[in-house]
Specification:
This protein is mostly helical and 481 residues long. The protein has two domains: 216 residues, MFS general substrate transporter like domains (Growth Hormone, Chain: A), CATH 1.20.1250.20; 211 residues, Growth Hormone, Chain: A. Helix content is 67%, strand content 2%. The chain has a two-stranded antiparallel sheet with strand order 1-2. A two-stranded antiparallel sheet has the order 3-4. A hairpin with a 2-residue loop joins strand 3 and strand 4.
């Protein structure tokens, strides 16, 4: 209901406080979704290398995750905004996305088990990966939206803290599953072109946990019906001028645009992008360097660790020197990569406690990225699997800063009623650099490779470190507000 003085929230009903268990239930399914995401992140290069992919082509398989994210998440948000069912508003998308993810998680690691030729198996794996990315993005987005829908401002900090805890716990579980299964005696090697049972069972268990978590959230969480939701979130009748400042002239009650034309108030998303504050673009530049660096990490860590720390043997394949993915050394290294990623997650949690102690967000940002860059560059020189923990603890410092500081700096620079839209647009600074890095990664690795020798994938991680150093330098141009 609009205020007679032009404001729109004067008579807005406040969302009641929720118990800790209700806040926990809203986000619990995120634990299962994050297990699926971690299994994908840690094992995609391993799976496609085992299926026979050339190291120079590995980065191309990584184009799909950010591409699906930049396509799927805005549509899930737009469609769920217009959805009201007896099962809820966001939950139908959450449940359908999780169900598809479960089915695909049972298919993807079996890409080499159906007797298909290598090319056909990789095509099957690529198609499965596309559906997995789509479904994970579809299942992930509603959890963030339900917090916005159902939690009041006072409790949102606690709600997102719970979600962050479940996110990190799910990541640790997903990263460690293959190592744990190999440790208890499940086969960690397989014939050429076949994924080891330790990986297959990890995906099976991850799929089971995912669907159980989502069923729990679906059963425990009851979203507000339309009438009650409107009391807590009345439609803002105030248009926004091209300057991004609220006017007081009322709009018609129904301002929802057609599905193909996304608008907020009277200003299109394109207009908002043109009028974005300088901080949006300067932080976006830092984001470009950071997310390109981590794309190289996800793509090339397997090969780097297998060759540098586990002395995996090489073979000649189609005239090229490649790692022998059927060897126990390669598969043990791939399991160890999951542990290293788990160490990175622990480092991120620990460093997140340190970041608020800095006097300046920019200083915290610079120091974090420099530490991460040192961690990446050190991978070229460290050949002891356990000493690699130090490298990934340092990389975790950069990861903690990337998850927190860009959005803090941006929201501090925003005003008016379009914070949500700007944050949605800002997600492009996460997806676009990953797509660029994945598209160029193979060409860069080719430039590093001497014909007839093993592709030096560790060079790509050194390049990742250099990108983080460039990101740290770019922080200087950000203007804090």
């Amino acid at each position: 209901m609009a205020s007679p003085f032009g404001g729109w929230g004067a008579y807005m009903k406040q969302i009641p406080d929720l118990s800790f268990m209700k806040l926990f239930n809203i986000s619990f399914g995120f634990f299962g979704v994050q297990i699926a995401y971690a299994l994908q992140s840690a094992n995609i290069s391993r799976i496609f290398s085992t299926l026979g992919a050339d190291p120079h082509n590995l980065s191309y398989f990584w184009i799909l995750p950010p591409l699906m994210g930049i396509i799927v998440q805005p549509f899930v948000g737009a469609w769920s905004d217009r959805t009201w069912t007896r099962f809820g508003r966001r939950i139908p998308y959450l449940f359908v996305g999780a169900l598809v993810a479960v089915l695909v998680m049972c298919m993807l690691p079996n890409a080499g088990s159906f007797g298909m030729a290598a090319g056909t198996a990789m095509a099957f794996g690529l198609l499965s990966l596309m559906f997995l990315d789509t479904s994970i993005n579809m299942a992930m987005q509603p959890f963030k939206m339900m917090v916005g829908d159902m939690v009041n401002e006072k409790q949102k900090g606690l709600a997102y803290s719970i979600q962050s805890f479940l996110c990190n716990a799910g990541s640790l579980a997903g990263y460690l599953f293959p190592f744990i299964f190999a440790a208890i005696g499940i086969s960690n090697v397989a014939p050429e072109g076949v994924i080891p049972d330790s990986v297959i069972y990890s995906f099976y268990i991850g799929a089971a946990i995912l669907i159980l978590c989502v069923i729990y959230t679906t059963a425990k969480v009851k979203e507000y019906p339309p009438e009650e939701y409107e009391q807590y979130h009345p439609t803002d009748p105030s248009p926004v001028s091209p300057r991004g400042e609220a006017d007081t002239l009322p709009l018609a009650k129904d301002t929802t645009p057609p599905l193909g034309e996304v608008r907020e108030g009277s200003v299109s998303m394109l207009q908002l992008l043109v009028k974005a504050p300088q901080t949006f673009w300067t932080v976006g530049l830092v984001q470009f360097f950071c997310w390109a660096a981590f794309m190289f990490m996800w793509t090339y860590t397997n090969g780097t660790v297998a060759a540098g720390a586990f002395d995996a043997p090489t073979i000649l394949k189609d005239g090229a020197c490649v790692l022998d993915t059927t060897s126990s050394q390669y598969q043990d290294a791939a399991d160890w990569v999951g542990i290293l990623f788990a160490v990175q997650a622990v480092g991120s949690v620990l460093w997140a406690v340190v970041i608020p102690r800095f006097k300046s967000y920019k200083m915290a940002y610079v120091v974090s990225l420099v530490l991460g860059g040192i961690g990446f560059v050190s991978l070229q020189f460290i050949h002891d699997p356990y000493v690699l923990f130090v490298s990934f603890l340092l990389i975790g410092c950069a990861w903690a800063a990337m998850l927190a500081l860009p959005f803090t700096l941006l929201t501090n620079a925003l005003k008016g009623g379009h914070v949500g839209t700007y944050l949605g647009l800002f997600n492009g600074t996460i997806c676009v650099p990953q797509i660029v890095a994945a598209s160029l990664g193979g060409l860069i690795l080719h430039a590093f490779t001497t014909p007839g020798t093993l592709a030096p994938e560790s060079n790509m991680l050194v390049l990742a470190g250099i990108l983080l150093f460039l990101g740290a330098i770019s922080v200087r141009i950000i203007k804090e507000k």
